[in-house]
Amino acid sequence: MSRSATSFRGTLPAIFCLLLAGSAPLLARVFLTVDEALKLAFPGAQVARRTAYLTAEQLKRARDLAGVEIPSALVTSYGATRDGQPVCVAYFDTHRVRTLPETVMVVVDPQGKVARVEVLSFEEPEQYLPRGPWYGQFGGRALGPELDLKRGIHPVTGATLTARATTEAVRRVLALHQVIANPSKAAP
Hints:
Elements: H1 3-27, E1 29-30, H2 34-41, E2 46-53, H3 56-66, E3 74-82, E4 85-96, E5 101-108, E6 114-122, H4 132-136, H5 160-181
Antiparallel strand pairs: 1-6, 2-3, 3-4, 4-5, 5-6
Helix pairs in contact: 3-5
């Protein structure tokens, strides 16, 4: 066999891998943009973007409350008001499910409970995405021991990693919201 035929044969798997890797973004699904999600969550409301910079004590308190890692002290939220009255606050959490990211919007009501959870993007294969009603079980829940898989949140066969990542995101958001809403209680 000539040297050029051998080189070409060795190149084919590399070309196939490059083509496959190049198609990975095609698997990503964007369901909603941030603006679309905010309009869906807050129809007819005024929405203002807010940025909070947590102190080291606040970040530690949020991590302790959530029981999960919180990667940054910088927190962006979107507060909605209607007729001057607070409606809810939305947070966007991007996290890794297995090897690829998911972005969810978690809306928190004035009582500090989950008003809704929406998936904005999901880059894992869609068979690992729970059905819409599964996300509904977060509604009305506050941060506590029942906000956990196999407790108050039912796991999903075939989407265990997504269920875990989403539940952790909701816990993270509720903890951050609690610390931001009550900064004087940042110390344990």
